[in-house]
Structure formats: C-alpha cells, structure tokens
Design goal:
37% helix; eight-stranded mixed sheet; single chain; alpha/beta
Length: 321
C-alpha cells in the first residue's frame, strides 16, 4: 500500500519507519477476536494517563434495559463550571474492538482547548453483542448525559455527538435514533471517517482490497461481527448501517471527513451529499493521500495537523451557536 502513487509523501515516509501490527482479516475468525482484544488492552495498559488538569472519571449508569451496567468515561475541565458545551463520543474499533481509554489524549485535548465536557461510552462489542446492542448502549448513554446535564455542567443547547470509524457510524446511528425517538436534541454531529454501509458495494470498498489499516476484508469482517448473515441483505436497519437511512431530514448539522485512500471514502461522500440534499448543513473534507486513521498514526505530518485543526475548528464553531 505504501507504493500507491497518491499516498501523501510525509505519510509514506512515516509508514516506512513504522512496524505495523499484523491484521489479516482474510484468515481471521471470530475466535481470534479475544486475542486481538488482549493485544489492544495490553497496549492501553502500557499508555500512561495524560498529564492534565482535566478531571477523568468513570461512571456506571443504567444501560438500555435499565440495569446499571453501562460505563461512561467523563472528561471535565478543572474548576466549577456550568453551561459548558458537551461532546458525546463513541470510540472506534470495527464494532468488535476498542474502549474509551484509546481516545484519552484526543478527548483530553477537546476538553482542554474547547472547555467542553466530554462523555465517552463503553458500548458492548460484537459479535457477542450484535446489533442492536452497541447502538442501544450509545443511545442510553446519550439519554443519561442529557438527563444529568445540570450535574455535569452541560448546556443542552450545545450537545454534540461524535466518533471515529465504527464509532463514527454508531454516532450517526445514535443521532438518527435521537431524532426518531424524540430523544435528546443533538446540536451537531462530528463523524470522523465513519463506517456507514454494510453492503460494501462502492468503488472504494472494492478498490482497497489492500490498505494500510482497514481493508475490504477487515470491513466485511467487522460488519459480519455486528450483523452476521444479515450483512448486505435487505432487512438491515439504518440504526445499524446509517447509509441505509432513506430520510436524512431533520438531522443536526454535520461534519464528515475521510481519507482519499480508504474503504469508507465513497460511502462517506455519498452520506454527506445526501445530508446536504436533505437540507442538513454539512461540512465535508476529503484528505488527499490520506489513509484510514492517518492523523493518529503519523501525527507529525502536515496533513495530520490540518485534519486535527479542522475538526477542532468545526467543533468550536458548533459550540458557538
């Protein structure tokens, strides 16, 4: 993949210096997921908590069935405060990996620079918990956040929902649920290279049978974990795969970004186009030469700096509304 002619030169140089973890979805089975999770957890255990004045706290709150089994990770700026904006965040991981801690540094950055409260949801993972468990957890956490806005010091008129990759797809689905259930009023959605379409029929989903991080095989594996035999069929809910939604009207303003060299490129382009056509104010960025998660993997590249700064600027504008 590092030989692709469109790959950003700085990203190429960074990749050539890295030892990338092995992930071969063509041979991976559902039984291998436990080992993958163990690797992720070991990596997270070795990463120190950011040195910051932001207060990081875990809360266990009622899940979708009313049980107190949903963990939310809170990031709050220091000092007493009320009327702060809030970013409700959903981590990535292909629907079958990940935890809120993987985004600690990013979310601390949002809290520090924007003065916002951040709430990150530890949703149940597939395949043990297939759809609708993950998105129902995300929605339950959003409802709890809205109900406890006063305690958290949150201004409910400045409540944004965001996420990356699988988390971006779940964030989009959570926003759809909030609209359709007349739930919390979401002011903005920040969808970072979101995973939106289980059908895997777009040109980019075929083009990147090989990719730096997340290729076609990995994407099919992730959707299979979430949906099983239903993946790609006629009865998949838009709350599982937001690209399936036929009505995008009445949704909050959106920000979507994606790399040129990744599976999600075309489904994200299409979702942005359809949002605009449905009357939803939408900002879209396609990063030339970028692959999936490029800014996290090679943060020093100019393209990475631009992507991160653009997201901060979009959230800052949204929180000024």
């Amino acid at each position: 993949m590092t030989s692709h002619p469109n790959l950003d030169p700085e990203l190429r140089a960074g990749l050539e210096e890295m030892l990338l973890p092995e992930f071969d979805a063509s041979t991976m089975t559902m039984e291998d997921i436990a080992g993958q999770r163990a690797q992720v957890n070991a990596m997270l255990a070795g990463v120190p908590v950011p040195e910051t004045d932001v207060v990081i706290e875990d809360r266990h709150v009622p899940g979708p069935d009313g049980g107190s089994d949903l963990r939310l990770r809170l990031y709050r700026p220091p000092g007493a405060g009320a009327g702060r904006p809030c970013l409700y965040w959903v981590h990535g991981g292909g629907m079958f990996l990940g935890a809120p801690e993987m985004d600690d540094f990013t979310l601390v950055g949002y809290a520090e620079r924007l003065g916002c409260v951040v709430v990150s949801v530890d949703y149940r993972l597939a395949p043990e918990n297939p759809h609708p468990a993950p998105v129902e957890d995300c929605y339950a956490g959003l409802v709890w956040t809205a109900k406890n806005a006063a305690e958290l010091g949150i201004d409910l008129e400045r409540l944004a929902v965001g996420g990356m990759s699988a988390g971006g797809g779940l964030a989009a689905a959570t926003v759809l649920l909030a609209r359709d259930r007349s739930g919390p009023a979401v002011a903005f959605q920040l969808l970072q290279c979101p995973m939106l379409d289980d059908r895997n029929t777009t040109p980019s989903s075929h083009e990147f049978a090989e990719a730096v991080v997340w290729d076609r095989g990995a994407n099919i594996f992730g959707w299979t974990a979430l949906l099983g035999d239903r993946m790609g069929g006629d009865d998949v809910s838009p709350y599982a795969a937001p690209a399936r939604a036929t009505d995008l009207s009445g949704l909050p303003p959106a920000f979507i970004d994606v790399g040129e060299l990744e599976v999600f490129r075309d489904e994200d382009l299409d979702y942005a186009r359809r949002l605009v056509q449905a009357g939803v104010s939408t900002e879209f960025h396609l990063y030339p030469g970028g692959f999936h998660g490029f800014d996290a993997m090679i943060p020093g590249a100019a393209l990475s700096h631009r992507a991160v700064a653009t997201r901060f600027a979009a959230l800052e504008r949204a929180f000024r509304r």
